[in-house]
Amino acid sequence: MTEETVDAFHRGAFYLVQPKGRGHRAGMDAMLLAAMVGPLQPGGKGPLKVADLGAGAGAAGFAVASRIPEAEVSLFELSPEMADYARRSAALSENEATNQRIRVFEADVTLKGAARNAAGLVDDGFDHVIMNPPFNEARDRKTPDPLKQVAHAMAEGLFEAWIRTAGAILRPGGQLSLIARPQSLAEIIAACGKRFGGLEITPVHARAEEDAFRILVSAIKGSRARLQMRPAFIMHGQDGHAFLGAVDDLNNGRSHYPRRVTGKSV
Question: Among 31, 42, 51, 262, which one has the highest count of C-beta atoms within 10 angstroms of its own C-beta?
Answer without folding.
Answer: 51
